[in-house]
Amino acid sequence: MSDNLVKPENFLFGESEKDALELDCGKKLHSVNIRYETYGELSPDGTNAVLIQHALSGDAHVSGKHAPDDKKSGWWDEMIGPGKYLDTNKYFVVCSNVIGGCAGSTGPRSINPKTGKLYNMDFPVITIADMVRAQKRLMEHLKIKKWLSIVGGSMGGMQALEWAIDYPDLMESVIPIATTARLSPQAIAFDWVGRQAILADSNWHDGNYSEGDTQKGLSIARMLAHITYLSDESMKNKFGRELQDSPSYSFAFKRDFTVESYLEYQGQRFTERFDANSYLYITRATDYFDISAKADGDLAKALEPVKCHFLVVSFSSDWLFPASQSEDLVKALLKNQCEVSYCEVQSSYGHDAFLLEVDTLGKMISDFLHNRQEAVRGR
Amino acid sequence: MSDNLVKPENFLFGESEKDALELDCGKKLHSVNIRYETYGELSPDGTNAVLIQHALSGDAHVSGKHAPDDKKSGWWDEMIGPGKYLDTNKYFVVCSNVIGGCAGSTGPRSINPKTGKLYNMDFPVITIADMVRAQKRLMEHLKIKKWLSIVGGSMGGMQALEWAIDYPDLMESVIPIATTARLSPQAIAFDWVGRQAILADSNWHDGNYSEGDTQKGLSIARMLAHITYLSDESMKNKFGRELQDSPSYSFAFKRDFTVESYLEYQGQRFTERFDANSYLYITRATDYFDISAKADGDLAKALEPVKCHFLVVSFSSDWLFPASQSEDLVKALLKNQCEVSYCEVQSSYGHDAFLLEVDTLGKMISDFLHNRQEAVRGR
User: Fold this and answer.
1) Which end of chain A offers a freer environment for a tag, N or C, measured as fewer CB atoms within 10 Å?
2) Least CB-CB distance to A193: which of B182, B223, B230?
């Protein structure tokens, strides 16, 4: 297999009651599949394993191609690969699809082993900690003793933070990017409205929808979310008030503006690759994310177990997870005398900057990982 | 009738082809009703008439009560009334429901005189300039020669700006508050998503819905818009991550958070008083609003006809119509050597501040109007 080709793998666990995955809601998940991909080789000293966490709509396919004629590469291919910022000639990179997802790991559109039918809305409501607990099983399966780093943007960053608190001995560092230690009421509110659009969709059938049915509700949820991923400035630069098809207004309700056309396309395309039920479960998991909750809202206290080094990155125009939220995290870590590097990157791209500012981010990550590995090997 | 009681009035025009209201879309509107209310008396010298413009979901009932046992007063009752900031003992205040609305003026749920049936989606797509053109007819009907001022927040401010350009000789001043000279692509995008929720609602029936049918789509549109009226900070202060009914998460998709409960309530309540079709038409009118369009995007050039004085007010935490948009307007007016006062009010209330910062705003408006009237009377 050539360097830039990758094969998705499956790790199945939890067949027995004892082996089942315990969830925060109190239920257990049986016969759990984790879809994952790996890049590069685990070094003999085991110091080069990096876990990449995907965001809400991402998947395990973070780099390379599955087949030579694939039109698209993995979602962070500019960042990760042979000779790239996160150099897979040097590091052993792992990325897995979250549970609750719809890209290979067990989620609401998987078969419920108890009924032989799709879970749909019988799937248990999961949390970010549940996702991480499943990844911990994958770590054991892959015989990784300690991650050199856990890297993630947005919801991926939430998972990275959760790892650092729940398994403080299992990583040298974490890199939370464009993320937050607890979802804000504004973000909860946007999630709520998106979910209401799905729940109200007459094609959704209480989650028991048929493949092929148009999922207009999901498309609306995605269009709404998309606005929160951009910034006022980037939308001005990208679309302005430009009209799409005609030099003048249609005086109708079809799309007139380029921005409307863009949203329509993004919403439609999303329904072709994503599951409405997964969208409900994953957004709910982010709503529930608040690492300070167990410490009565005291973020520093909640972060006390943490032992690893941090590289925290935010983006100036990100208004979904604004820099101030990263600063709250950094202040709490510093209060605990943790080792933290922090950078607020100046960017007009809004929340999406974590996927677009590859060069700026790549150099930081590359240097940080190199230094971390040197330090580990020097011990 | 006591001072704080007011009777809604109707002004019907456009019965004949010649008298019909010409619209920007090229069509004409016949048998147009304008629902309006007036407060105070027009002074013998005619220098005390103030036109108040309502925002998207507002109406003509801006002050006082219709009956002594009304639970609520008009939507800007704290600002306007006898002895209040906009003192109706001193000023003659007029407020009318916009055409396209659903609070008495002709809109999509009015009878189409050509068919004898509800217009619904046969109602023509209107613009802010069309709304203003209808108000101009009302002005003639009321025998007002010149407005002392035209005052409006949000979409009301758009109407005020449109007046200043289209009828520059008919007002001494305008007070555009928390508004913009052209809707941004971000605001167009939010409107688009809100409308898609209405269009996708299986109860909406292409606009031919029955009274009493639940309008879930409208509720979703309203919930979404509501988030844009608040600020991140005000949502943190008002809701935080507080749970509504239970000390712990439900692990379900019903409302858990106070902010979810608030949105659900606001969305539901809105469907009881507003029309889904009006929502489509009025948001479209705001999308189309760009006073610079006729001058190829040159705001100063577009504002050249303007003769009146301006008091422009923005709010620091308003991210729907941010202060920078008011500043663009002010700069363009100054370039034209117009008389402009500008204030960015420090407030955490977001866009809603124009309805909540009554004292700060009231003092400014009161002083400004007083000075304007003194100047007029001194001529």
Assistant:
1) C
2) B223
Burial of residue B252 (number of CB atoms within 10 Å: 0-12, 13-18, 19+): exposed
B chain contacts of residue A241, beta-carbon cutoff 8 Å: 182-183, 185, 188, 290, 293
Q: Does B244 touch chain A (CB under 8 A)?
A: no
Domain assignment of residue A2, yes or no: no
| Residues B30, B142 within the same domain | yes
Mutate to test the interface with B, among A188, A222, A244, A278 (most CBs of B within 10 A): A188
**Residues of A whose CB is below 8 A from B254:** none
CATH code assigned at B217: 1.10.1740.110
Residue B285 contacts A where some CB pair is shorter than 8 Å: no
Residue A100 within any structural domain of the chain: yes
* Same domain, yes or no: A207 and A229: yes
Query: Is A34 inside any structural domain?
Result: yes
Residues of A in contact with B235 (CB under 8 A): 184-186, 189
Give the residue from B283, B317, B345 where a domain finishes.
Answer: B283
Burial level of A262, CB count in 10 A (0-12/13-18/19+)?
buried
Chain B interface mutation, best of A121, A192, A236, highest count of B Cβ atoms under 10 Å: A192
A268: contact with B, CB 8 A cutoff: no
Number of Cβ within a 10 Å radius of residue B317 = 20
Q: Which two tokens stand for residue B234?
A: 């005000």
pLDDT of residue A295: 96
Spatial contact of A339 and A366, defined as CB atoms under 8 Å apart = no
In this complex, the residue of B125, B184, B235 whose CB is nearest that of residue A185 is B235
Name the residue with tokens 């400035």: A233
| A154 a catalytic residue | yes
Residue A195 lies in a domain: yes
Q: What is the CA radius of gyration of chain B?
A: 21
B252 and B354 inside one domain: no
Residues A179 and A249 in one domain: no
Residue A182 pairs in a beta bridge with: A290
Domain of A166, CATH number, reads 3.40.50.1820
User: Domain limits at A301?
Assistant: 9-184+290-378
Is there a single domain that holds both residue A92 and residue A153? yes
Say how many domains are in chain A: 2
Interface touch A257/B287, C-beta < 8 Å: yes
Same structural domain for residues A277 and A202? yes
Task: Convert A242-257 to b/e letters by CB count within 10 Å (16 or more is b).
Answer: ebbeeeebbbebebbb
pLDDT higher than threshold 60 for residue A46: yes
pTM (two decimals): 0.97
**Which residues of B are known catalytic residues?**
154, 318, 351
Q: How far is CA B376 from the centre of its chain?
A: 27
The answer, yes or no, to whether residue A1 has pLDDT greater than 60, is no
Q: Based on the fold, state whether residues A168 and A208 are members of the same structural domain.
A: no
Q: Select from A124, A183, A220 the Cβ nearest to the Cβ of B197.
A: A220
pLDDT exceeds 90 at position A178:
yes
> How many Cα atoms occupy the beta-carbon half-sphere of A350 within 13 Å?
18
Strands A49-53 and A149-153, sheet pairing:
parallel
Same domain? A350 vs A368: yes
Rounded average pLDDT per 10-residue block, chain B, 379 residues: 80 97 98 98 96 98 97 97 97 98 98 97 98 98 98 98 98 98 98 98 96 93 98 97 94 97 98 97 98 96 98 98 98 98 98 97 98 93
Among residues B241, B257, B283, the one where a domain terminates is B283
